[in-house]
Write a structure and sequence with these properties.
alpha+beta, six-stranded antiparallel beta sheet, three-stranded antiparallel beta sheet
């Protein structure tokens, strides 16, 4: 096993973050704050470091059989609720999904994996060990003992393996935090989203300018109409919005995420559904348009020969049972951009709100939900179940990865502190 210097890893991550955060607007203070807030936040925002670690110690990348589309950056905060595209709930019934429906039986919210920016076709074990490592960091963030953190990690791996080879656990229940999240988000209306993110100025709806919504430089505003037109043209004809619906009302630079900070990301307000309008733009739609690049783990698998945003869309459609509403792609200034419509249903678990008694059920549930996504996107499903020894080895790798990231996090904080003097 190779010797790994967490401080060297932290230095490389620091320089990577500083350079990336200054690409479009200066987001370095924001990135620095988010990366130093906790070991889990550091882990979330440093997918390239994770894959550097696998390169420096090949044993960490080993694992049992099974390959296909993987998220590439799987952790506990890459699950959440969203509004799915129109469709039946039949594909979700009898499975592991939490979902909400309206009085007409239409899906209004579903809980799923919700981030495929780093997706590629590779070993399932990479996603599993990264998710398990994040569970260890969450346990430590909760103040759990080392033994309790290991118990949670092992439980998650067992649940994943059980779903992969034996189907759902007989008594699997939707955890209360997930069930309540979906029920709450499924009942939200579009007006709630608009009231939260926008305001009326001179009888015109616009985004509230804040730390999360910054003025968009004029050079990008000029490129936006063409990007919207290209996206619209790519939507399936039966679902394609009209030019009037896609008329741009306002646009800002959107500051969101952690690992993606520094990428070009826009929030765009378009005219939307005039039938729901009351003269104040309450039928408007909000689009999230985000730059995509090559996945950090590309060397550990294969990626289709398509633009980066198309890769992310392919992975999403391959792995989730219900696709997010209005998912598509476009180009803007030579950048490959993923487009989706933001909905009031979008929400995720707030880890600080969870109780220790919630974590057992959450591990069982997220392990199975991850396995279901991998099975849908499988290219080389394993021919036999993972053995106890293989699962034990995955646990040991997750422990080592979590410990190195925690040490690198402290070194990163030391570097930040030194530069702030």
């Amino acid at each position: 096993m190779s010797k790994i210097d967490p401080h060297e890893l932290a230095l490389r991550q620091y320089e990577r973050d500083r350079e990336r955060a200054a690409r479009v607007v200066d987001l370095w203070p924001t990135k620095r704050t988010r990366m130093t807030s906790s070991p889990l936040a550091f882990f979330r925002g440093s997918a390239p470091l994770f894959f550097e670690l696998l390169s420096e110690d090949k044993w960490l990348a080993e694992g049992p059989a099974g390959a296909g589309w993987i998220a590439g950056d799987l952790h506990l905060e890459n699950f959440g609720a969203y509004r799915p595209e129109r469709g039946s709930r039949a594909e979700l019934e009898g499975g592991v999904h939490a979902y909400a429906v309206n009085k007409r039986g239409q899906l209004t919210a579903v809980f799923e994996l919700n981030d495929f920016d780093e997706a590629f076709i590779g070993p399932w074990s990479i996603d599993v060990v990264r998710l398990a490592a994040s569970m260890i960091l969450v346990g430590r963030q909760f103040g759990s003992s080392g033994l309790r953190s290991l118990e949670l990690c092992a439980r998650l791996i067992d649940a994943y393996a059980h779903r992969s080879f034996r189907g759902a656990i007989d008594d699997l229940a939707i955890p209360d935090p997930v069930r309540m999240l979906v029920e709450r988000s499924g009942a939200r209306k579009q007006r709630a989203l608009l009231e939260h993110r926008t305001e009326i100025v001179r009888k015109k709806r616009r985004f509230k300018r804040s730390k999360g919504y910054l003025e968009l430089p004029s050079e990008w505003m000029a490129k936006l109409p063409g990007a919207i037109a290209r996206y619209t043209k790519g939507v399936a004809e039966k679902m394609r919005p009209t030019a009037a619906q896609m008329e741009i009302v306002d646009a800002t630079f959107r500051v969101a995420g952690n690992g993606s900070l520094g990428a070009l990301r826009l929030a765009v307000l378009v005219r939307g559904n005039s039938a729901s309008d009351d003269g104040e733009g309450n039928g408007a739609w909000v689009l999230d348009i985000k730059e995509e690049g090559a996945p950090a783990g590309a060397a550990w698998g294969t990626t289709p020969h398509v633009p980066p945003a198309a890769r992310v869309e392919m992975a999403t459609r391959a792995c989730v049972a219900s696709v997010p509403k209005r998912l598509g792609t476009t180009t803007m200034g030579g950048k490959s951009m993923l487009v989706r419509r933001l909905s009031p249903q979008e929400d995720r678990l707030v880890l600080s709100d969870l109780r220790d008694q919630d974590l057992n059920g959450l591990c069982d549930y997220l392990g199975q939900l991850s396995a279901a996504a991998h099975q849908r996107g499988a290219t080389e499903p394993p021919k036999k179940p993972w053995t106890k020894a293989e699962k034990r080895d995955l646990l040991e790798r997750a422990v080592r990865i979590a410990s190195i990231h925690e040490a690198a996090y402290l070194s990163y904080c030391t570097i930040v502190r030194a530069h702030m003097r």
